[in-house]
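BUG: 3D viewer hangs when loading the predicted structure for this chain

Environment: internal workstation, default settings.
Expected: structure renders.
Actual: progress bar stalls at 90%.

Input used:
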Amino acid sequence: MRIWSLHPGHLDRQGLVACWRETLLAQAVLSGRTKGYLNHPQLVRFRAQDDPLAAVGRYLQGVVEEAEARGYRFDRSKILRPSDDASTDRGTSAHAAPEPGANIVENIVENIDVTAGQLALEWEHLSAKLELRSPEKARENALAAQQQTPARPVPAPHPMMRVVPGGAEPWERASPEAENLAPPAS
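Structure tokens produced before the viewer hung:
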């Protein structure tokens, strides 16, 4: 299971679909609807929130919005606790009228902190995957990151993530040297 801290726009088609499915699985775990993956480290950051289901719902909203921007149809009704938060790239108001039938969470879900080192680790991990299966997307990502910050390309985080200084997150299991991975000082 990989619930990316990176913006869903950095994912290729396969990555976006996998992120959607795996985050739906995380939602099932957090809602008690499945017994598998109960202690998966990727769930730590959601469990740390006041309302874990609302937090994972907000995360899923970012994924579904990217899918819709690409013309894909992900079923929004699968999000158990969508948020009324202004986390979208479209800049909708935090108090905009919900879609008919939507089960909107009353409180606004806070951003989740992600360390710059975690973002760098995920960027390297995703870049390596994309070089093999979607070289065009890998080039597109590299150019986008370079345009954002020419001196030191930095990927955009998921819309609900706030980047803070630090190495890889303590829950990260991607590599033994992950703890020491941090971007260069600016």
